[in-house]
Amino acid sequence: MMKSFVIFLVVAILAFTSVNVNVAAECPKICTLIYSPVCGQDATGRTTTFGSMCQYEAHNCNNPTRGWRILKTGECPDL
Predict the structure, then answer these.
(1) Which residues, given as ranges, of the chain have pLDDT below 70?
(2) Do 59 and 50 touch, CB atoms closer than 8 A?
(3) Residue 27 phi, psi (nearest 5)
(4) Where is the Kazal-like domain positioned along the sequence (predicted)?
(5) Most buried by CB count within 10 Å: which residue of 12, 42, 45, 63?
(6) pLDDT, tens digit, 9 for 90 and up, residues 51-70
(7) How far are the Cα atoms of 26, 47, 55, 69 from residue 34, in angstroms, in the given order?
(8) Which residues of 5-27 are buried (b: 16+ CB within 10 A; e: fewer)?
(9) 78 lies in a domain?
(10) Spatial separation of the C-alpha atoms in residues 32 and 51, rounded to whole Å
(11) Which domain does 53 fall in, by range?
(12) Does 15 map to a domain?
């Protein structure tokens, strides 16, 4: 009986910890509508203005192979 309880406890702890790890690894899904632009550039040199740092982070998280980085706060210059 005690052995079954210990096994159950270990499984429960492992399940709880893996759930927390997965939640932390998810990309941001909801950003506020407060406009605070940042200018980002991908690995090819293409620039994009993101509406906020949250939107930049969400985009970068969902597109990890693009290699986006922040160039500056504010909108990107028109070329």
Answers:
(1) 1-25, 79
(2) yes
(3) -80, 150
(4) 21-78
(5) 42
(6) 999 999 999 998 888 889 99
(7) 22, 21, 11, 21
(8) eeeeeeeeeeeeeeeeeeeeeee
(9) no
(10) 10
(11) 2-73
(12) yes
Task: Name the one residue in this structure whose structure tokens are 């052995």.
Answer: 3
Q: Mapping DSSP to helix (H, G, I), strand (E, B) and coil, where does residue 71 land? A: strand
Contact 47, 71 (CB under 8 A): yes
CATH number of the domain encompassing residue 56 = 3.30.60.30
| Alpha helices by DSSP H, 1-79 | 2-25, 53-62
Which residues have CB under 8 Å from 19's CB, separation 6+?
none
Structural domain count, the chain: 1
| Count helices and strands in the chain by DSSP H and E runs | 2, 3
d(CA 35, CA 43): 25
